[in-house]
Design a protein that fits this description.
The chain has 11 helices and 10 strands. By secondary structure, it is of the alpha/beta class. Among the domains are: 26-209, Collagenase (Catalytic Domain); 361-401, no CATH class. α2 (68-80) crosses α5. The longest helix is centred in the middle third of the chain and has 18 residues, at 188-205. The termini are far apart. The model is unreliable at 1-8, 14-23, 273-335, 337-356 and 369-393 (pLDDT under 50).
Length: 401
């Protein structure tokens, strides 16, 4: 175990190196962005080619302490965190691989490291993510060097991730995850630590970058609050070391923070290309039409428990010779005002400048009942509705609000 003096000295050195970095903090976002000359188009976040990438697990045991079914449970728990309602991404379990990965089928060749055929990137249409169980650490030693799988290096090498196939259109096709069996043991905390690191590795495989939100939780300057620790992203670059298991240094370590969810939703937005709904004209009538419609409804129905105060419209009759001139004046009063180009010395209405103008409420009253009876013998119906019929014994008035 690393001594307290050594860990304190290493942390002080790490803080000194971080102080040399630029002062601007970055939230979660894309891990890679396309660029010339290989990728086209340019400046696009690199994401998976499918919204439902599937992961396949090794058919063997992870270690003498973790069986195949227990290892699959760890992988499923770490992957399920990344399926959220606000992102168009479903990380699904696809099944098991064809054979257990070991030094017998994973070895170095002149062209590079050879893996089993079903885990190669050329098979990305069938297997998108291959999860290998390195029981004895031989695969990790082959990839990183002898001694890399040592239990003393489990903070860095418990889980290895590699995105090994990206198309020219900027789409991830294939990835490999290697779990170090030497980082497990009889203590349940060892398996939880492996699940925590695998959860963060899944975020990298999905295309998320590291986040510096609430970075004072790691640096300690200024002193972090409990709320800042609760919102410290899972995709933080470096863990806080408070003991042998770093997941214990974070509250609710297996729950995504709002910054993680926002970064995932940015890469995989829901409803891309959906046209916004535009309201129809009949859904929002003109204010004047709406006012007339309400006035017409109130004149026809009246209040609850009251009788109508005037006869129906078909009972109102008028003589066009007597009413013609007055009706023409009344129609002019109901027509919208005519706007003319402004002239010097003339008042310019506010409507011409696009400013809101409140419409005055007109005093419209039905004809008296006695007048309706006197007109009952005429043959031609009155052309106006009783709600818009002016009173003949009183001039038309305008009442402002």
């Amino acid at each position: 175990m690393i001594s307290t003096r050594t860990s304190t000295r290493g942390r002080s050195l790490l803080l000194a190196l971080l102080s040399l970095l630029p002062g601007t903090a970055h939230a979660s976002g894309p891990r890679w962005v396309t660029g010339q000359p290989y990728y086209s188009p340019e400046g696009v976040a690199i994401t998976w080619y499918t919204s439902s990438p599937r992961y396949f697990t090794d058919p063997g045991d992870l270690s003498p302490y973790v069986s195949h079914s227990a290892a699959d449970a760890i992988v499923n728990a770490a992957a399920a965190v990344w399926t959220v309602p606000s992102a168009n991404l479903n990380l699904l379990y696809g099944g098991t691989l064809a054979q257990h990965a070991s030094s017998d089928n994973v070895y170095a060749a002149s062209t590079g490291i050879v893996f089993p055929s079903d885990t190669l990137s050329a098979n990305y249409l069938n297997i998108q993510i291959a999860v290998l169980y390195d029981s004895d650490g031989s695969i990790i030693d082959l990839m990183l060097g002898n001694g890399a799988s040592s239990p003393s290096s489990c903070r860095q090498n418990a889980v290895l991730e590699s995105v090994d196939a990206i198309s020219t259109a900027g789409k991830i096709r294939h990835a490999i995850l290697v779990l170090n069996g030497r980082c497990t043991g009889p203590a349940p905390e060892q398996q939880l630590q492996l699940q925590y690191q695998l959860m963060r590795a899944f975020g990298r495989v999905l295309g998320l970058s590291w986040s510096q939100t609430n970075d004072n939780v790691f640096t300690g300057t200024p002193t972090p609050t409990i709320q800042q620790a609760m919102h410290w992203p899972i995709m933080h670059p470096i863990d806080v070391i408070c003991g042998p298991y770093t997941y214990q240094c974070t509250p609710q370590p297996f729950t995504l923070r709002d910054d993680d969810v926002a970064g995932l939703s940015l890469l995989y937005p829901v409803g891309v290309g959906a046209a916004p709904s535009v309201p129809r004209k009949d859904q929002h009538p003109h204010p004047r039409q709406s006012h007339r419609r309400k006035h017409h409804l109130s004149q026809r129905t009246g209040h609850a428990g009251r009788q109508r105060r005037h006869p129906p419209a078909r009972a109102l009759l008028a003589d066009p010779r007597r009413m013609g001139g007055h009706l023409r004046r009344h129609r002019r009063s109901l027509s919208p005002p005519q706007l003319h180009p402004p002239q010097q010395g003339h008042f310019v209405p506010l409507r011409q400048h696009g400013l809101p103008q409140r419409q005055p409420r007109r005093s419209l009253r039905p004809l008296p009942h006695s007048f309706c009876l006197r007109l009952g013998a005429l043959a031609e119906p009155h052309p106006l509705h009783p709600a818009h019929q002016p009173s003949l014994h009183r001039p038309l008035r305008r009442r402002t609000l």
